[in-house]
Recover the amino acids of this structure.
């Protein structure tokens, strides 16, 4: 019913109404996508950059006593896109002799709490939910779903470098990269 | 002076119709029996405003970068006048808000205020609840101490265990593959820009709905169960006996003020705990989340190995879905379906409602007892007789599924002419 405030809806031809609504929808859609796609990429893509972590200098090969597990702090060798973007990391280095090493990531494979190496017990312990790992990183107790993650490594001129982090399978061999 | 004020008011009155607007707002009727428990919603709004205002001022000094975040808070608390007080209000206010929101939800749940026609207010409320938890999660990284850092490592790991999208979620939350500068930037932007905008939008929607629908009638006595088709009439009747919003505003004011006093006391008495500066290389730190995420953290004990997503994903998601859906699952009874059930389940074999007496008592007399709970009590007292008669007539013992019992009650209420139910 027409009154002072509202126009009689029947007086507006359906084709006209459809035309107006279509144009408005097109304008909204264009604005949303021209803004939305770059903003989504701006927000999300840096999170998927590859190989942000380069080789880290861990120490001289001769610094690591054979048969022992030592905690090492390492700083990224190559300057990052953004200072402090990759903070110092902690890793555990096990020297098996004749230039073979295992480098353990210090995050528990359960929900990421920092694992602690206890030399007397010869175990890694996680403080949150009772995860226990042996000196090879195998799960001995608690909820962790897999053995401790490891760093790939290389030795150049007597210096040990740590690379990317990978997950291991039940035989403690490479399964997949923790992130690429 | 008084006439000057009068003139100013008149100026506004001419332009905005202030007097009518105000009296419509202050003197609108509420349903009868509105209680002190009904103040928790406005108390939540009050706390949100306190959080917003203290947050504004913290933002003047806080620097969201790993190099400066921790020191800027030490500076706020050590050097700035009332720094401890302002940060204390914001810090303890967060916990108090979670508590009050939770109590508000309990009030709404136990008074059945989420039911028809307020399902959407409840759903908007659940969104607000989740937003407030997100405020907590993004807020506590900002202090960049050990607790902040490691609780976020655990938090993002938990998000990372979601099926299919876990890895993406983990990266997007962190802005990369570890908790670092970009994570802090993200959490800061979310905490001070995105979440507040979304929160206030939902607050607006939630409150508009509450004003549009009116406060839900308190389910006491005869208002216990209201049929859908009779809802408007019963509600209006209940409002006719109710008091004005101004009376309730008085209760709102008292409760908010008491909460404010508690908050001020907390901010003065308890220094906001700051741990050591965040250290990603730590191997001796024991991470613990804020108390309101503790249940999730401890739940992880129960689901080892491949069961982890049960605790980190399926249980929380199921909980949230349950919260959203209760308002749809729990519908008022349908008297027409109830009428059919009355015959199908065999009730009509022995009982009439306001007809000539059959073998069992006429249910019209149940009107005296009002509440269906008392009916159940009556039936319980005569269960033996009923069972023998049911056997005599070769009937089966009636079983009720889903909403059938509620439908049956709606029908009986309608037939015996209880308020909220009569024809």
């Amino acid at each position: 019913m027409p009154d002072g405030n509202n126009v009689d809806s029947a007086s507006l031809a359906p084709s006209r109404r459809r035309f107006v609504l279509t144009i408005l929808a097109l304008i909204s859609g264009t604005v949303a996508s021209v803004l939305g796609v770059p903003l989504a990429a701006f927000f999300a893509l840096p999170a998927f950059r590859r190989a942000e972590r380069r080789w880290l200098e861990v120490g001289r090969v001769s610094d690591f006593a054979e048969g022992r597990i030592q905690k090492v702090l390492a700083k990224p060798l190559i300057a990052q896109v953004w200072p402090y973007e990759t903070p110092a990391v902690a890793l555990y280095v096990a020297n098996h002799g004749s230039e073979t090493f295992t480098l353990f990531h210090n995050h528990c494979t359960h929900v990421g709490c920092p694992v602690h190496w206890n030399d007397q017990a010869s175990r890694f312990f996680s403080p949150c939910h009772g995860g226990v790992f042996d000196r090879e990183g195998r799960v001995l107790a608690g909820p962790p779903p897999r053995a401790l993650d490891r760093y790939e490594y290389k030795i150049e001129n007597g210096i040990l470098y740590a690379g990317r982090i990978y997950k291991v399978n039940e035989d403690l061999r490479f399964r997949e990269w923790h992130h690429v | 002076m008084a006439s000057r004020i009068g003139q100013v008011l008149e100026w506004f009155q001419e332009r905005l119709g202030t007097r009518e607007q105000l009296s419509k707002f202050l003197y609108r009727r509420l349903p009868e029996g509105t209680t002190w428990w009904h103040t928790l919603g406005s108390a939540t709004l009050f706390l949100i405003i306190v959080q917003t205002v203290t947050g504004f001022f913290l933002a003047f000094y806080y620097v969201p970068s790993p190099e400066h975040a921790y020191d800027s808070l030490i500076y706020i608390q050590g050097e700035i006048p009332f720094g401890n007080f302002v940060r204390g209000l914001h810090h303890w206010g967060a916990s108090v808000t979670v508590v009050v929101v939770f109590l508000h939800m309990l009030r709404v749940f136990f008074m059945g205020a989420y039911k028809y026609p307020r399902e959407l207010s409840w759903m908007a409320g659940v969104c607000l609840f989740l937003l407030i938890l997100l405020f907590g999660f993004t807020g506590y990284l900002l202090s960049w101490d050990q607790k902040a850092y490691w609780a976020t490592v655990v938090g993002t790991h938990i998000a990372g265990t979601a099926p299919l999208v876990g890895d993406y979620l983990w990266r997007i939350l962190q802005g990369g593959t570890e908790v670092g500068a970009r994570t802090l930037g993200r959490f800061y932007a979310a905490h001070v820009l995105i979440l507040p905008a979304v929160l206030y939008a939902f607050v607006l929607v939630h409150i508009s709905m509450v004003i549009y629908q009116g406060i839900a009638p308190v389910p006491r006595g005869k208002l216990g169960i209201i049929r859908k088709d009779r809802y408007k009439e019963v509600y209006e009747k209940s409002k006719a006996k109710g008091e004005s919003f101004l009376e309730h505003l008085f209760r709102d004011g008292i409760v908010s003020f008491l909460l404010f006093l508690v908050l001020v006391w907390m901010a003065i008495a308890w220094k906001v705990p700051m741990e050591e500066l965040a250290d990603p290389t730590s191997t001796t730190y024991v991470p613990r989340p804020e108390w309101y995420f503790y249940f999730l953290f401890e739940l992880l004990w129960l689901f080892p190995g491949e069961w982890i997503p049960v605790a980190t994903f399926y249980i929380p998601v199921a909980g949230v879905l349950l919260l959203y859906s209760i308002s749809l699952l729990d519908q008022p009874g349908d008297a027409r379906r109830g009428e059919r059930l009355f015959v199908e389940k065999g009730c009509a074999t022995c009982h009439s409602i306001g007809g000539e007496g059959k073998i069992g008592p006429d249910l019209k007399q149940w009107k005296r007892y009002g509440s269906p709970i008392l009916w159940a009590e009556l039936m319980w007292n005569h269960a033996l007789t009923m069972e023998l008669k049911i056997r005599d007539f070769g009937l089966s013992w009636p079983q009720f599924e889903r909403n059938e019992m509620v439908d049956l009650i709606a029908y009986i209420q309608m037939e015996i002419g209880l308020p909220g139910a009569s024809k």
In short: Residues 9-46 of chain A form one domain. The mean pLDDT of chain A is 85. The interface with chain B takes residues 43-44, 46-49, 52-53, 71, 73, 82-90, 106-107, 110-117, 127-130, 142-145, 178-179 of chain A (CB under 8 Å).
